[in-house]
């Protein structure tokens, strides 16, 4: 059965990505796999806009988040987590699971990070080892001004590492890792990168590598040092998800063919179109600082969002995401990243309109 | 290009497993995915021969090994690792990465675990929290008598948990989790389970769960408690590798259709055939206690195993594994698990014979 996926990961896959996954499976200690793997990492550097090394993990995005915490920090280290939604909170939970107590700066959901609030928190909490940000938070549909925030960190605490979760942003929303001075940027395969879920990536600056060598939190599977040592052999320390690597290599080829700036522009245009259409329907936007990766839409009072979404999925085979945590049932989220097309968004908007404006149906 | 894979993971995939992966991708918070996911876990209980719960992780097998260490142990805990090859050593390395110093019992590579040696080690080291075993070690091609070893542990230290790495064994070599009294058995998707690499599993006894609740090592992504809490909703805590779950569900359907006892018998017959053919060729077996999952073969002195394997792969498109660590270049390993057929093994043996017996070619 064919579904229209408007969910913010997994996102729909291009046909050639499906095809790449159905090629006969490769063994991971062969030159054929090595070529595919190292080509994917090279193409990721292009997408990240970095000259630094990129590492690959077989894991969900949350695994990459944990890898950032355990590879950069030591017991007793001070860190700050900037939370703009459900995914920011995850960094805090991971740090706590490892015995750390990070400083938390919370934004009202739907608002991007406020530079002045960050500056004040940095002033109040000297000696931070790292500051953790979200690029885009899929739970709220906001985008943070990473260039500006990184500059604030550099000015207030030049030694603090700038660590970014761009699991939902990379490959869809503009990001310039080196130019913006980001030290670590993690991401996942299943959103802007147009591959199935199951692979996660981390890109590191040179000073991030120095922190990794010095960090003392325990780690084995997620140890970035082991991964780096395997890179010259074009391999991973442990058996990787080879079919997903084949898929990811093909999806990155498509991104490179289109050009990353064109991908950003296309995603931004689809987001602008969706925001306009939603407002024409008389609905309001949840995010005050909306991202291009997805549009979060407030549902009218009295509408049961969970029922609405299920009805659309069951009867029309269109998957739209609802709200997370306290937003459950109150908003819907329509994604624009990757292979999602205007026709898909139109189908989703039509399904929404039919149910929210029954007299006009 | 079509390859014959005789490597012990990834192994070749059945055609219907490729097909399952190329179905339109499902969102992981839908009832459609939930049904597929919970069916796979139910079928895994059948393969594990357990009434206990089975958990799924998006990770390599090494991730599942780490999950066993961090979910069962606390700082200062005493544990014993029984090493019969390269993969046994991995448990030791993981435990050390988390600050533990396990007792290590080493067998000569190629020999299965000796019950008397284990009994002596258990006597000498009272108060063990867990004893870690390999079911089959793919680096040496041996199989351990888990039923017997578990009985030795129960007799000597009834409170010690019996933890088994059956990444390469499950679904190919006989294993009776409940009947043999195994507390934790981990495995991976890419060997006997006939799916691509990227998923790992853990099955737990009730007393293993009590240990998990009490354990104090830090964990987040690999936290079994979080995974268990998601089971009633037929979901995973974080975005799983959905295409691999589709593949795994289909592969398990095939195993159930054939019957697990028939799978064991078929694998054993292919292994017996291979051992006989190899010896007819004048070659000797490396393992003194050979497993059914693969046959490790000594190469004649003076043969460069690495060159041999590369030559076979490049010219005949047959992937045979070499030796690991100190066995590199000295042995070859021909796998029998999963979808590997007699015709594949025959092609591999012919390619070997041609190169090792040039006058008979």
Give an account of the 3D structure.
The structure is a homodimer of 361-residue chains. Chain A starts with a strand and ends in a 5-residue tail after the last helix. Chain A is an alpha/beta fold. Helices cover 43% and strands 16% of the residues of chain A. In chain A, helix 1 packs antiparallel against helix 10 (242-258), helix 5 runs parallel beside helix 6 (146-156) and helix 11 packs parallel to helix 13 (342-356). The first copy, chain A, contains 13 helices and 14 strands. The first copy, chain A, folds into two domains: 4-9 and 259-360, Aspartate Aminotransferase, domain 1, CATH 3.90.1150.10; 15-257, 3-Layer(aba) Sandwich (Aspartate Aminotransferase, domain 2). Chain A is globular. In chain A, strand 3 (79-83), helix 4 (86-97) and strand 4 (103-106) form a beta-alpha-beta unit. In chain A, the strands form four sheets. The first copy, chain A, has a seven-stranded mixed sheet with strand order 2-10-9-8-5-3-4, with helices on both faces. Chain A has a three-stranded antiparallel sheet with strand order 11-14-13, with helices on one face. A two-stranded parallel sheet of chain A has the order 1-12. The interface between A and B is large, with 54 and 54 residues.
Question: Tags for this entry?
Answer:
homodimer, 361 residues, alpha/beta, Aspartate Aminotransferase, domain 1, three-stranded antiparallel sheet
Output the helix-strand order of chain A: EHHEHEHEHEEEHEHEEHHHHEHEEEH
Overall shape of chain A: globular
- Biggest interface: chains and residue counts? A-B, 54 and 54 residues
In round numbers, the mean pLDDT of chain A is 95
Number of helices of chain A: 13
CATH fold name of the largest domain in chain A: Aspartate Aminotransferase, domain 2
- The CATH superfamily of the largest domain in chain A turns out to be Type I PLP-dependent aspartate aminotransferase-like (Major domain)
**Largest beta-sheet characterization of chain A:** 7 strands, mixed
Secondary structure category of chain A: alpha/beta
The radius of gyration over CA of chain A amounts to 20 Å
Just name the CATH architecture of the largest domain in chain A. Answer: 3-Layer(aba) Sandwich
- The count of β-strands of chain A is 14
Strand content of chain A: 15-25%
Low-confidence stretches of chain A: none
How many angstroms does the end-to-end distance of chain A come to?
26 Å
Report strand order across the widest sheet of chain A.
2-10-9-8-5-3-4
State the oligomer.
homodimer
The CATH class designation of the largest domain in chain A is Alpha Beta
């Amino acid at each position: 059965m064919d579904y229209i996926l408007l969910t913010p990961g997994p996102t729909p896959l291009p046909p050639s990505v499906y095809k790449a996954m159905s090629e006969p499976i490769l063994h991971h200690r062969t030159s054929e796999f090595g070529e595919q793997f190292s080509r994917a990492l090279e193409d990721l550097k292009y997408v990240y806009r970095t000259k630094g090394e990129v590492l690959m993990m077989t894991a969900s995005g949350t695994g990459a988040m944990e890898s950032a915490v355990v590879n950069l920090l030591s017991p007793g280290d001070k860190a700050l987590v900037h939370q703009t939604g459900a995914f920011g909170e995850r960094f805090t939970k991971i740090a706590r699971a490892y015995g750390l107590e990070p400083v938390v700066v919370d934004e009202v959901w739907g608002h991007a990070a406020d530079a002045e609030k960050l500056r004040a928190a940095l002033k109040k909490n000297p000696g931070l080892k790292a500051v953790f940000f979200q690029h885009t938070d899929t739970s709220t549909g906001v985008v943070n001004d990473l260039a500006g925030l990184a500059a604030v960190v550099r000015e207030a605490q030049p030694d603090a590492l700038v660590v970014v979760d761009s699991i939902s942003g990379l490959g869809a929303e503009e990001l310039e890792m080196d130019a913006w001075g980001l030290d670590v940027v993690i991401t996942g395969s299943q959103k802007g990168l147009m591959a199935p879920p199951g692979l996660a990536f981390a890109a590191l600056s040179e000073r991030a590598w120095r922190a990794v060598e010095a960090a003392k939190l325990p780690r084995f599977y997620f140890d970035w040092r082991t991964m780096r040592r395997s890179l010259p052999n074009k391999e991973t320390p442990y058996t990787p998800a080879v079919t997903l690597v084949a898929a990811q290599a093909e999806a990155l080829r498509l991104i490179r063919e289109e050009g990353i700036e064109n991908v950003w522009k296309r995603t931004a245009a689809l987001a602008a179109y969706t925001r306009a259409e939603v407002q024409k329907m008389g609905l309001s936007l949840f995010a005050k600082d909306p991202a291009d990766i997805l549009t979060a839409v407030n549902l009218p009072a009295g509408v049961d969002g969970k029922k609405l979404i299920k009805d659309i999925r069951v009867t029309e085979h269109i998957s739209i995401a609802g709200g997370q945590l306290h937003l459950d049932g109150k908003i819907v989220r329509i994604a624009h990243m990757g292979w999602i097309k205007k026709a898909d968004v139109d189908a989703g908007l039509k399904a929404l309109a039919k149910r929210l404006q029954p007299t006009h149906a």
